[in-house]
Structure formats: C-alpha cells, structure tokens
Amino acid sequence: MSKKYGIVIDVAKCTGCYACFLACKDENCGEAHPGYTEAQPMTGQYWLNITEVERGTFPKVKISHIPKLCNHCDNPGCMQMAENGAVYKRDDGIVIIDPEKAVGQKQIVNTCPYRVIFWNEEKQLPQKCDLCAHFLDQGFEKPRCVEMCPTGALVFGDLNDPNSEISKLVAEKKPYPLRPEFELGDNVLYLNVPKKFITGTVIYKDTDQCAKDVKVTLKGNGVEQSLETDVFGDFWFEGLESKTDYTVEIEAEGYKKVCLQARTMKDVDLGEIFLEK
Ligand code: SF4
Ligand code: SF4
Fold it and tell me: What is the DSSP letter of 208?
C-alpha cells in the first residue's frame, strides 16, 4: 500500500510560539524548489498560518492558537478548476500546485474553501503548502513546521501505516477535520479545537472567602460531569456544544445547594456565585 501523509494538530498543545510559521518561511521564502514550488514571496503569503481565537470576556478569557495549512485533501477542491493537470495529488497524498503548469491560473486560488491558496502577482502563480515534499523526497522524516514544533502539537506521518505515531493517535483520539461540512477528505486533522465554556467563581458568603474544592456538576446535552473548584473558587467546563442549555449545580457541605441555568450562545461566565448557609 502506498503512503498517505497527514498531520494531526492538537490545539491544546499549541502555545502560539510561531516556530512552525517561521520554519515554513525559512524553508520557502525567497527559495524555489524546482518541480515542487516557486519561492514564497517575502510578504503576503502564509502557507502555514496561525489563527488566534480569543474567547470569553474579561476576566474569564481563554486564548487558543489554531495552525492552518493545506489539508492535502482526498477530494481536493483545488484540483477541480485547474487546467492542464496543474494541480495533482501524488501517490503519497501530497497535493501539489505545479509551478509551471499553474502559471496564469488565478481561478485556482478561489477553489479552496479553506483559503490556503495565495496568488503570487509577480509570478502570476497560485501557491500553497506542499508539505515540504522536496524535503521528504530527500529522505527527511518530517516537514519543517513539524520538525520545529517544540510542544508536539504537530504529529506527521503515514496514515496508511497502522504502526505510525499518527495512525495510533488517529485510532485513539479520533481527530477530525477543521470544517467537516466541506467534505474534502482532509488529511490534516485536529484535536481540541475550542468549543464553548461555562465558568464561574464560587465564594462563601459568610466569610467572603474563595470556595476551594467545592463540587460543581454540569448537566445537559445528555451528559453529566463534575469537577472541583480551584484555589480561587473558579470552575471551567470546556468543550461544550454551542446553543445548548446546561444546568450548573454547586454543592458544599453546610451550605445551600445552588442551581443555575446557562445557554451556550457564547462562552458563559456565571460570575461570582455566593454560597449561603
Ligand atoms: S485544503 Fe484546499 S488547497 Fe489544500 S488540498 Fe484541500 S482543497 Fe486543495
Ligand atoms: S510550533 Fe507548535 S506550539 Fe508553536 S505555534 Fe506551531 S504548532 Fe503551535
């Protein structure tokens, strides 16, 4: 069986350090890889880009970083509008825009719903990530972005090899496409893409102290989960579905139970919640 290269991106492990972004720039800016890609211009193109997602409202704010690149899809939209075989998929799954055949084919840019194809005005050429195919073909094990990630947020490998790290990760964690509704057969898959959260701060009314280690239970959407407040009396329920009704129950020995309702139209901060005797 031939190889099928892919990447799993664990958003929870991404710190937004931009090492992957810079590695891509270092490998491709101002340097052509004949037969693979023209040089990436020094400005205006981001073959691997990082989207910063800010959620919640002060003081309960969370920031996530989502690296985005070409997904080297099984059903690549970008191939459909390309003339003359200017976009093709290699046997190992890498989708390449031929830097000679694609000259003048600006229509290719708009065929990717992920918007990861860029137009090089000077060269009249559509361009995107080629998963460092020139690098892999020389025998290197990983694209530069994966090689440089210090946190292990990017795992690259052969999805057709059941013993590869990426295949084991796929089997265990079940990563998913960033936008499954596009139905492109993505081979860059994600874990822990942020969803909605419900948070709050529990305080003992009689002492005005933060209520540490208090049991908080979330019910809704067919699930029930419990956790304990941290040293600040805070609790966070992460990974919740949007537009869903939840009930939050707070229980501490010697205090009245508190029940609150929350609807995840956006991230929800229930604010300060006082426990009374
Ligand atoms: S992500 Fe876009 S550019 Fe990459 S293969 Fe899929 S359709 Fe083509
Ligand atoms: S190198 Fe790794 S941790 Fe840094 S931004 Fe890229 S994916 Fe995130």
Answer: T
CA of 194 to the centre of ligand 1 (A): 23
In angstroms, the CA 88 to CA 40 distance is 19
Residue 8 neighbours by CB distance under 10 Å? 23
- What's the token pair of residue 118? 């860029």
The candidate with the shortest Cα–Cα distance to 199, out of 64, 13, 56, is: 56
* Separation CA 138–CA 205 (nearest Å): 66
pLDDT at 125 over 90: yes
Q: How far is the CA of 143 from the centre of ligand 1 (A)?
A: 17
Per-residue model confidence as pLDDT tens digits over 182-217:
999 999 999 999 999 999 999 999 999 999 999 999
Dist. CA 204–CA 255, nearest whole Å? 9
Nearest bound ligand to the CA of residue 187:
1
Q: What does the H/E/C string look like for 91-104?
A: CCCCEEECCCCCCC
Ligand 2 atom closest to 19 (CA): 1
Q: Would you say the CB of residue 20 lies under 6 angstroms from ligand 2?
A: yes
Q: Domains in the chain, start-ordered, CATH in brackets?
A: 5-191 (3.30.70.20), 196-275 (2.60.40.10)
How confident is the model over 43-53, as pLDDT tens digits? 999 999 999 99
Cα 125 to middle of ligand 2, angstroms: 28
| Distance from residue 130's CA to the centre of ligand 1 (Å) | 10
The CB of 64 under 6 Å from ligand 2? The reply is no
